[in-house]
């Protein structure tokens, strides 16, 4: 499993996040399932509640949702994202 690490924070252990090149082309997923972290984050961004997400993905466990958020937060700290300035 690869995890974000860098000058802002050390490597962290993400027990619920797995990266397997043989599954989902190596994108970070929840516990080896074919549920990408990005899917969970997208659901939350669409104002879905944890209960709704868990109902739609019966293989998920309640602790998977905050784990996905924690992983995503660490991952974006590693990237320099291009931002546009208002004209």
Notes on the structure:
It is a single chain. This protein has 87 residues and is mostly helical. It has a single domain (17-77), classed as Winged helix-like DNA-binding domain superfamily/Winged helix DNA-binding domain (Arc Repressor Mutant, subunit A). It contains three helices and two strands. The protein has helices spanning 37-45, 50-56, 64-77, and strands at 17-18, 29-30. The longest helix is centred in the C-terminal third of the chain and has 14 residues, at 64-77. It is globular. The termini are far apart.
Summarize the structure.
The chain has helices spanning 37-45, 50-56, 64-77, and strands at residues 17-18, 29-30. The protein has 87 residues and is mainly alpha-helical. It has a two-stranded antiparallel ribbon with strand order 1-2.
Q: What descriptive keywords fit this protein?
A:
two-stranded antiparallel sheet; 2 strands; globular; 3 helices
Q: What's the overall geometry?
A: globular
The assigned structural class equals: mainly alpha
Strand content: under 5%
Q: Please bin the fraction of helical residues.
A: 25-40%
* CATH arch. level architecture: Orthogonal Bundle
Q: Mind summarizing the main beta sheet?
A: 2 strands, antiparallel
Report the radius of gyration as a whole number of Å: 14 Å
Topology:
Layout: E1 17-18, E2 29-30, H1 37-45, H2 50-56, H3 64-77
Antiparallel strand pairs: 1-2
Helix pairs in contact: 1-3
């Amino acid at each position: 499993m690869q995890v974000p690490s860098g000058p802002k924070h050390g490597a962290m252990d993400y027990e619920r996040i797995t990266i397997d090149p043989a599954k989902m082309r190596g994108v970070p997923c929840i516990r080896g399932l074919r549920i990408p972290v990005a899917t969970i984050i997208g659901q939350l961004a669409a104002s879905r509640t944890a209960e709704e997400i868990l109902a739609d993905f019966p293989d998920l466990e309640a602790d998977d949702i905050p784990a996905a958020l924690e992983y995503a937060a660490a991952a974006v700290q590693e990237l320099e994202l291009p931002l546009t300035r208002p004209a």
